[in-house]
Every structure is written in structure tokens, then in C-alpha cells.
Amino acid sequence: AAVRHKDAVVRASAAGLLAEQPVTAENVAALQKAFDAALLSDRDTNDAQLAILDALFKLDKKQSVPALVLAVNSRDYLVRKKAIELMEHHD
Question: What is the pTM of this model?
């Protein structure tokens, strides 16, 4: 629920905590949904988007691909850059 909080800093912190949890379908799905929501709602900050991308990639590289593809098309340069960096490290 914290990855869906309205405060981007809270969502970024929650994503970091989820990245340390076991890889489960629920954790991955929560991060995927949170990233989709962050893309739509976060106009003035990219903290949550960057943290969620990192967390998704850490939990499950393969399952992070849809979010990375979306991120490559983000209006935010740093989000695009992060997605490209993660894709380059995809095994």
C-alpha cells in the first residue's frame, strides 16, 4: 500500500524496502502497478519512478522489462536514462 501513497518520497522508500523482500508475484505486481501510477501522477518529481525501476530490476529482471520499456518513453530525462542503464545490464 505504501508504494501507492500520494507522497513520492514515501513511495520511493517503500519501493526500496520491497526490493529487499523475497521475489513474489505480489511484490512484482505491486511495483509494476506503482510504476504505472507514478508515470501518470508524478509531474514534478522522479524519485518514486527511479526507485521503483531499481526495485523491479533487483527483484526480477525479466518482469521489469515492461516498466523499462515504458520508462524509455518517459518525459523525464533521468527516468529514460535509468531505464536504458538497466536494460544494458539485463542478462
Answer: 0.87
